[in-house]
Amino acid sequence: MMYQVYSTETMVVEKKPAAKKMFIYALVLLTVVLGIGIGIAIGRLAICSHEKRELKPDGVLLPGISEALIKDGDPTIGDDLIQAIKSENIAEYLRNLTNEPHLAGTSADKRQAEELRDFWLHVGLDHVTITPYKVLLSYPNNTEPNFVQLLDNNQTILYNSPLNETIIRPEENKTDVVPPFNAYSAPGDEYVRITLVLFIVIYIHL
Ligand SMILES: *[C@@H]1O[C@H](CO)[C@@H](O)[C@H](O)[C@H]1NC(C)=O
Ligand SMILES: *[C@@H]1O[C@H](CO)[C@@H](O)[C@H](O)[C@H]1NC(C)=O
Ligand SMILES: *[C@@H]1O[C@H](CO)[C@@H](O)[C@H](O)[C@H]1NC(C)=O
Ligand SMILES: *[C@@H]1O[C@H](CO)[C@@H](O)[C@H](O)[C@H]1NC(C)=O
Ligand SMILES: *[C@@H]1O[C@H](CO)[C@@H](O)[C@H](O)[C@H]1NC(C)=O
């Protein structure tokens, strides 16, 4: 299928209502921004004058906001949390979570959800639920993978997108890694003519 690029006249006619709409959106946005700005300015001026003396150089300082509102009830809790966060732990969890391909809606994905639930229960959460939902996703067909081609006027292929992603590290070499695919469209073939780039045709196989 060939897609015709709109002529300039059509574009101009179509732009008029859109421009009007854009102007109204811009006006509404400006009003909202001005309103918030004035609100903050009044708030600052009203609170600042009484409480400037209370601000101490240590701890969190938010000029104009009462210190009582922002200070920790128990400062040791914050310290404990910060101490418990270790980059090695984050790396280990991320490695665990991304170790196996787990495309949404597959049994591997469900297995990972169950592992996560068990993990949260194991670390002490009282209640963890998994909420099932319909995954509206199309899946690649390994025998007929998606690809994008760049064709010239004579249908000669100038470029073909790779069918599989390159394996950069050995741990990426897994059997159920899906090939690159367009997840949000129905299967089919699409031709798009790029008029500005010397009549090159892009062929998309989905
Ligand atoms: C990830 O962690 C869960 C539970 O902590 C464990 O059951 C699972 O085997 C781990 N997966 C990998 C790939 O290490
Ligand atoms: C994958 O493509 C082949 C060839 O067109 C087709 O026979 C098969 O039914 C497709 N598989 C799926 C799951 O759509
Ligand atoms: C297409 O083919 C014709 C005739 O075979 C040739 O003259 C022309 O140069 C080709 N065009 C391109 C872009 O390769
Ligand atoms: C791409 O990967 C799939 C699944 O691992 C494999 O069956 C297929 O042969 C590979 N295709 C290419 C072109 O490497
Ligand atoms: C991936 O693993 C297969 C079998 O385990 C091996 O034959 C292949 O050479 C490996 N590919 C890469 C790029 O490491």
From TrEMBL:
Query: Which SUPFAM superfamilies does the entry link to?
Result: PA domain
Query: Could you tell me one molecular function GO term of this UniProt entry?
Result: carboxypeptidase activity
Keywords, A to Z, come to: Membrane, Transmembrane, Transmembrane helix
TM regions (residue ranges): 22-47
Keyword Phosphoprotein: yes or no?
Answer: no
Q: Gene3D superfamilies annotated for this entry?
A: 3.50.30.30, Zn peptidases (3.40.630.10)
Protein name, UniProt field: Uncharacterized protein
Write down the species.
Answer: Potamilus streckersoni
